[in-house]
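Dear support,

We are seeing what looks like truncated structure output for some complexes. This example has two components. We would appreciate it if you could run it in full and send us the complete C-alpha cell output so we can diff it against ours.
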Amino acid sequence: MDPTTAMYVAQGLHGLAYGMLLFLVASGLTMVFGMMGILNIAHASFFMLAAYFSYQVLAFTGSFWLALLLAPVAAALVGVLCERFLLRRTHAFGHLGELILTVGISLVILEGVKVFWGTESLPIHVPPLLEGRLALGGLDYPIYRLFVIGLALVVLGVLAAVLYTTRLGMVVRAAVSDAGMVNALGINVPLLFMFVFGMGTWLAGVAGVAIAPILTVFPGLADQMGMDAFVVVVTGGLGSLWGAFLVSLILGELNSYGVQFVSQLAPVLMFLFMAIVLAIKPMGLFGERE
Amino acid sequence: MTRRAVRWLAGVAALAVLLAYPSLFGIYFTNSFVTFGIFALYAVSFNLLLGFTGLLSFGHAMFFGAGGYGTALALTHLKGLPLLPALALGVAAALALGVLLAPLMVRISGTAFAMLHLAFGQLMYVLALKLRTITGGEDGIGGFPIPPFSVPGVLSVDMKTPANFYYFAVAVLGFSVFALWFVTKTPFGCVMVGVRDNPNRVAYLGFRVPHTKAVVYLLAAGSAGVAGSVFAMFQNLVSADGALHVFVSFAPVQLTMIGGVGSFFGPILGSAIFGVISELTSRYTERVELVSGAILILVIMYAPLGVIGMWHAARARARARFAPRGAAEPAR
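Here is the complete output from our reference environment:
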C-alpha cells in the first residue's frame, strides 16, 4: 500500500472508531427520547463522568481493565439515581421542566467534576498489551484504536442481541415506540424506563472510558461528543436506533476526512449535513414523529 | 391614601433611587447593577418565548451575541459612528439573524425547537471561533472606541465614565423592558398566550399562529440584541465564550426559572436573586455554576413556578386561612 492510500485508510479507521463511540453515546440518548419524549442534555455528562471514574479507579488499582469494568457501572448508577429521584418526580410538569432539569444536572456534574478533579487534563495510560502500533501492509495504525473499534462492536453486538432476541428487549422496543400502550398491558413502565436510562448511561460510560486514553480526561470532554450525539439523534430520526447507527458512522467519517481536507470548517460540515437531511426529511432519516 | 397615590409615590421613590444609585453605592455596585440590567432584559426577552408563547430556546445566546458582535464590528470598522446608531446596528444584526431563522423555527415547537436552537447556537459559537479574520477567534473583538452620547451642537456625554454609562444603560434597558411589558398587555399579547395554551383554537379563531410566533420571535431576538449590544459596549469586548457559549444560552433559562416562568417580572426578580447569590457565593468558591445548577434543580423539583409562584401560593394559603369563618371551612 502506498503512503497516500495508507493515510486515507488510517483516516477512515479513525472515523470508524469515533463513529462507533458516537453510536454508543447516541443509542442511549435516542432510546431515552423514544420512551420519555425528551432529549437528555445531561447524557454526555455521564459520558464524561465515566471517564473521570476510570481515572480514579486507575489511580486506586492501577488496572485499566478494572476501570473499563467498574467506571461505566458507577456512572450508570449515578444516572439511575438521577432518574429515580430527580427526573421521575418532575415528569408531572411536562417536557419543558424535564429538559431544564437535565440542564441543571449537567451543570452540577460539570462543576462537581472540576471541584473533585480540578480543571487540568488527566492522562490515562493503557496496559502494555494495547500500546504501540500495528504495521499491516504499509499501514501503521495504533493498536488501541483497533481495540476501541472491537470493544464497540462487542458491546453493540450484546445490545442488539438483548434488544432483538430476548423478551426484555422486545418489551423495551415496544415501550420506545409506544410507552402508554405497554403500560396499559400491565408492564411497569417507570421501572423499565429506569432500566433503559441506566443502560443508556452505561453505554455512554463505556464510550467515555474508551475515549479517555485518546483524548485525556478534562472538563470539556463532553462538549463535542454531546453536540455530535444530539446531531446524530435528530438527524437519524428521534427514537430510531438504526438511524442513529447510520448517522453515527457517517458523522465519524465526515469528521475524520473533514479535518483532513477542510480543517477549519470540519464542525460546520456536520451541521450542514444535518440541515440538508432535515430540509428533505424534517423528522430525520428514520423518524416518524416529532 | 389611595392605592393610586401609593403607586405614584413608590414609582417616584424608585426613580429617585435609580438616579442617585451611582453616587450612593460607588463604582463596583454601579457596574453590578448594569450587569443585572443587561441580564434582566436578556432573560425577559427569553421569557417572552418560553413564558408567554411556550417556546423553549437553548440557543438564545446567538441573538445576544449577534447584538454584541454587530455593535463591536460597527464600532471597529466605521470611524466616528455615534452611540445610538451603533446600538441600532447591533439590534439590526440580531433581527437579521431572527429573520433568517424564523421561517424554519415558527413551524416547530417543544423539544425540536429547543434542540434546533441548541444546534444553531453551537454553530454560531463555532463560526465565531473559526472565522478569525472577522470575529477575532478566541480573543473576540475588544478595545473598540465607545462614542460619547451626543446631540449635535447641544451636548456630548462621555460614555467611558461608569456613572454616565450607567444612566445610558438603565435608560436603554428600562425602555426595552417597558416596551416588551407593553406588548404583553396589548390584544396581541393575549394572542401570544393563546398560542402557548392552545394553538389549534387560536388558529380556529382566525389568528395566524406562525405569523404570531414570527413576530414574538423577532421581538425576542431584537431585545436580546439590545442586551447583547449594551453588554459589548459595557465590557468594551465581545468574545465567543462571553456572548455565544452554551452557558450564555442556559443563563436566561436559570434566571427565568428561579424568578418565575409564568410572570413578566419573574425573570427580572430571578436576575436580581441570581446576582445576589453569585455575588455571595463567589466570595467562598469559584464554582458559582455548581451552586446555580443545584438551585436550578431544586427550583424545578419543588417550585416549578419560581419565587413568584411560591409567593402567589403563599398568598392563596394565607387568604384561605384568614377568610371569614364558614366561607373557607369545609362542611363537616
